Prior knowledge:
The complex is a heterodimer. Chain A has five helices and five strands; from the N terminus they run ββαβββαααα. Chain A is of the alpha+beta class. Chain A has two domains: 2-72, Ubiquitin-like (UB roll) (Roll); 75-149, Orthogonal Bundle (DNA polymerase, domain 1), CATH 1.10.150.120. Chain A has a five-stranded mixed β-sheet with strand order 2-1-5-3-4, with helices on one face. In chain A, α2 (77-89) crosses α5. The longest helix of chain A has 14 residues, at 99-112. By secondary structure, chain B is of the alpha+beta class. Chain B has helices at 12-21, 32-36, 70-75, 81-87, 93-96, 101-106, 113-120, 135-141, 224-240, and strands spanning 2-3, 6-7, 26-28, 40-41, 44-46, 55-58, 61-65, 124-127, 131-134, 149-155, 159-165, 175-181, 185-190, 197-201. In chain B, the strands form four sheets. In chain B, strands 6-7-10-8-9 form a five-stranded antiparallel β-sheet. A four-stranded antiparallel β-sheet of chain B has the order 11-12-13-14, sandwiched between helices. A three-stranded parallel β-sheet of chain B has the order 2-5-3, with helices on one face. Chain A binds chain B through residues 1, 17-19, 21, 40-42, 44, 47, 53-56, 58-61, 63-64, 105, 108-109, 123-124, 126-128, and chain B through 1-6, 8, 28, 31-32, 35-36, 44, 46, 48, 71, 88-89, 91-95, 97-98, 169-170.
Amino acid sequence: MEVTLIINGDHYGFSAEPDEVLLDTLRKLGFKSVKRGCDTASCGVCNILVDGKLVPSCAFLTVRANRRNITTLEGVSKQAEEIGNFFMAEGVEQCGFCTPGHMMSLIALFNENPHPDIETVKHYLAGNMCRCSGYEGQHRAIEAFMGGGK
Amino acid sequence: MRITRYIQPNDLNEAYERLVETKGAVIMAGGMFLRLQHRTLPLVIDLGHLGLDGISSAGGLVTIGAMTPLRCLETSQDLPDILKKGTRQVAGVAVRNMATVGGSIMGRYPFSDVACCLLALDAKLKFHYHGEMTLQSFLDHGLEGEDILLEVFFEMPEASDYKSFRKTYTDFPTVAVGVVKRESYTVAIGARPGRAKKWTYDEMNRQTLALEAFEFSSDRRASAEYRKQLAAALLEDIMEGGM
Lengths: 150, 243
């Protein structure tokens, strides 16, 4: 099926199989920030934005995304770098695999609610798994970011 | 999941005709559970272009379109507490932006928070071919033949609440309890582990906590006795919360 995807503002036209998912399409197109984790929409590492809404790309059919706006971490790198500096300062990353998914979730949250409290942040991030940590580093970094970085 | 053909019709009648004429055709709402199935689907009919989403309220009657994402229920200012609380821990935000109220109902899932909440609300369903029926009837008997769910509706209650026990924040519930107050109290219990059931009480009192009207069973998540004790504790929490 012929589809046109608008990825980070640029148009991409190609043929897609009806059961191809955005995760595979985006990685084929070079958007490697989007990771394959659980493949069941449970872990959050494949999170992207479609029309501004946070979605799991492993469960979103490419054909369904025809003519829709898709945002990956590559498209919000400035915003991600700003938050990422706080992640670095708190030593959040161990393997780093979950970080892009966390970033996409945070960016989606701040787009919806520019001034959430930490409980709202924790609720919003409940769908992002980190196998390395106990999430304390992420929470410290986010609180520091919200406290003075924004 | 493998898909042979995918269509996204703009007309409800066309979607229905393709569904009934094509053996093995399935409806795609959010597609969350469809994605997990190990089978080949000859035809997937995406309902995304039919305008079946949205929440409206008029004269105390609340109507929710079948394609409304669960995140919309969670954040709506027009819905009773039971639905806002009942959707909060269904997986993560990303999934709730795609999973729909219609998909949650049509699966008749025993673990469904959404079905439990809507059952407590005495919700009714409106189908394209079968017309209207109670959610209770649909959960108990399913449908004869294929159909497309259009909307779910209920009368706004005086008060409502929902509590569940889960081993992790976004897990399926081990047991779930929803309570709706109108002239009487309707208590629905889901993940028993069987499908949600409801019972109506004239008043909420200590006797209600005995939960004699409900059956509980054991599975690898919990024993029947533990589930029943959990359900009673959750119901007591709701009662002490001012219901």
